[in-house]
Amino acid sequence: MEGTKNKLPIAVTIGEPSGIGPEVLIKSWFKRREHSIPPFFVIGSPDIIQKHAQQIRLPIPLEVIEHPSEAIEIYNRCLPIVDLGLDSDFHFAVPGQNTAETVIKAIDCAVDFIMRGQARAMATAPIHKAALYSAGFTSPGHTEYLAEQVQKHIGQEFQSVMMLASEELCVVPLTIHEPLHKVPELINHALLVRTIRTIHDSMKKYFGLASPRIVVSGLNPHAGENNSMGTEDSQIIAPAIEAIQKQGIDVKGPLPADTMFHKAARAQYDVALCMYHDQALIPIKTIDFDAGVNVTLGLPIVRTSPDHGTALNIAGRGTANPTSMINSLKLADRMSKNISPFEMIHDV
User: Fold this and answer.
1) Are residue 150 and residue 3 in the same domain, yes or no?
2) How far apart are CA 324 and CA 13, in angstroms?
């Protein structure tokens, strides 16, 4: 089993054509030996890749493949790509509705390859949601859409959890793309318990931690300061933490968010669960802006993504930093190396 699962390639979705996704994919392939990047193949359009390569003056050898298994043999001499045969016309820095189908189909195809046991993980280039919405995309985000697609295959609902990971820090936002004024009403006992459980189980399964150390931030300044700055910390967050501590999970909190992220504090835990988007993402992007990776937990597949967007303002200039994409590929490799697709999908 070990030999079989390690031979499977990683599926990479092309992302928004007008952004920097194709550029960082090209640069990642050229750095495959330097960074020991495992075999991967792109799902999308060779025309899009070639246009980016020409624009940034970095010609790349491509070979269209019909099946993921072909990627292994040719990976060291050219970039393997599955051609979806859809509209590939685009303009740098200007997302268009015409390529939305390519972006969405690439995600669907990657999930399908994993479900069929033909790829062992997926890494996704950034998407531009506004362009997809105009083409009928209805999910709040990339992660939520993936959960929907997996559910269609398995017939089971999953709670996807977004974790941002780097060597220095791993953070999870409890609520993600929500207006700040809505956050307090979204925080509840069930959501906290499910999320902490998902973090715990995933860190054990994919990262090899026997007893993951989790800390939870408070919602209010100073974690409420004895209810003088809000009652959510004492009445909602603390009871949920106490309940899951009784299940043998190493979790502490709620802690004041402003003292959780200095170097000495970070040494005391493996993952920090925060209450909202910026509370989690500001620390990790400050500490390691270029190298962070977006990891989806809670699904029976491995999915990673660069911790940056489409960066339309620098698309086509050749200045995009591929470090986050490289780390995404390496982390997808690490998480899926010792677990076969069958085990991932059926151990739910």
Assistant:
1) yes
2) 15
Coil, helix or strand for 150? helix
Residues 17 and 134 in one domain: yes
Please give the span between the terminal C-alpha atoms of the chain, in angstroms, as a whole number.
Answer: 19
φ, ψ at 104 (rounded to 5°): -70, -45
Question: Both 97 and 138 in a single domain?
Answer: yes
On whether both 271 and 332 belong to a single domain, the answer is no
C-alpha distances out from residue 202 to 51, 90, 197, 208, 334, Å: 38, 38, 8, 9, 13
Tokens standing for residue 49:
């890749």
Query: Residues near 220 by Cβ (< 8 Å), separated by ≥ 6?
Result: 229, 230, 232, 233
Q: How far, in Å, CA of 107 to CA of 114, rounded?
A: 11
Specify the 3-state DSSP secondary structure of 257.
Answer: helix
Q: Are residues 281 and 311 in the same domain?
A: no
Neighbours of 180 (CB within 10 A): 11
Cα 236–chain centre separation: 28
The Cα–Cα gap between 15 and 35 comes to 22
Q: Residue 161: inside a domain, yes or no?
A: no
Write down how long the chain is: 348
Q: What is the pLDDT of residues 83-105, one digit of tens each?
A: 999 999 999 999 999 999 999 99
- How many helices (H) and strands (E) in the chain? 15, 12
Both 115 and 16 in a single domain? Answer: yes
pLDDT tens-digit readout, 133-166: 877 888 888 888 999 999 999 888 888 999 999 9
Strand order in the sheet with 170-173: 62-64, 79-83, 40-44, 10-13, 121-124, 303-306, 293-297, 161-165, 170-173, 271-274, 214-217, 251-255
Is 0.85 topped by the overall pTM? yes
Domain coverage including residue 87: 1-155+302-348
Residue 163 resides in a domain: no
Phi, psi torsion values for 113, nearest 5 degrees: -60, -40
Q: For the domain that residue 233 is a member of, what is the CATH number?
A: 3.40.718.10
